[in-house]
Predict the structure.
Amino acid sequence: MWRLPSRHADDGHRSSGIPPRPAAHRAPAACVSDESVERLLVARLVKRDEEAFNEVVRQHGDRVFNLVLRMVGSRAEAEDIAQEVFVTVFKSIDSFRSEAKLSTWLLRIATTTPRIASSTWPAAGAGF
């Protein structure tokens, strides 16, 4: 574990006895844009990186689930459909053109999933 430098160090050196972090482990000096982060995530998805897929589910899972839940009205069915959405994303990531944000594409897939497209949207009148 890395520790912060001691407040009592008056010569500007770490007094904890722990050497400084190697450069490879330091945070980058420049800020990375959200678009760059998303492009890197999509590139990892294209390579079928499972951790990238898990990251997409963590970042967008609640939003996809809540949208689907509002559309179908059933929590159990919404969970199944949300899972289908992410499977579809994983299988069809090569078709993502980056003209829109990844989140927009995900929500579009959610609204055009066959189980939703063929439903009558029973919860549609409930403030959606």
User: Anything to note?
Assistant: The chain has five helices and no strands. The two ends are 48 Å apart (CA to CA). The chain has a mean pLDDT of 77.
